[in-house]
# Entry
Amino acid sequence: MTDRSVFCSCAITGGMSVPGQSAAIPITPEEIVESAVDANEAGAAIVHIHVRDPETGRPVADLGLFREVLAEIGERCDAIVQPTTGGGQGMTIEERGRVVTECRPEMATFNVGSFNFGIFGAKHRPEMAEWEIDYLEGTRDYVFKNTFADTYRLAELFREAGTKPEYEVYDIGHLHNLHHLAEQGLVDFPIHLQFVLGVLGANAASLDALVHMRRTAAELFGADQFTWSAAGVGYPAQFHMASAALMLGGHIRVGLEDNLRVALTKRASSNAELVEKAMILAPLLDREPADAACAREILGLGGRGDA
Ligand code: KMH
Ligand code: ZN
# Structure
């Protein structure tokens, strides 16, 4: 590990998109596992995991599916397997947190703020079923709920499980929410922050926004108290934020959960393709791609739990 080491996280399938948006989105447990293993081979040290109903592709919080996917990825590669506790529309915080309690992963996402997660702008495609259109349209009125009641509860669950949170911050206020949790003694430092930028309803995927988020985190927590990564949502945001993070000393997240294009005129055919592009950018900017072992060192992870 050096100061120039950079790890890449790949968000494999997501909980807000619908299958009709791209045939490349993995749906079944087998597809999710295959895609995660391929992304790891392409250079992703972390694979961020949601699960979907294998029949319909609808995002679900099914513990059986999580168990199957987490175990299988764990057997096939050494990636840090990071399940979501963000979930998707209609899931309660108890359902979202169950994967942490039951699977005790070494790391999982932890969302620290509520906002109107708006993806109703996504194009309606002929291959979409009626529920998919409803799911997208439903986000006009969908509040991604992460209240203090929720985050206090999650903080408890993560501690009990010994799972390291990746704090998902989509806007400046979320950093202040996290600071409040820290003041209550609910946060263990150093922390890892994911700046998720470009979601309609929260902050923009601009260089100014990213720099402001990073500076605010440094002011609130201390510059040596956190590692950080940037996830740009959409195209070209995914690679613009990755490039900015590479310049500024952060880590990066790509993947079909956040973006479906690999170039302006080309839709991505796989998660691995998105990771490969990020892996080309890193050394061009003098950053050294970190494997999972190196990422564990950077994040202070002891290794796998029971997952
Ligand atoms: N869907 C992303 C924009 C989570 O899963 O906890 C944010 C995300 C959150 O990945
Ligand atoms: Zn996610």
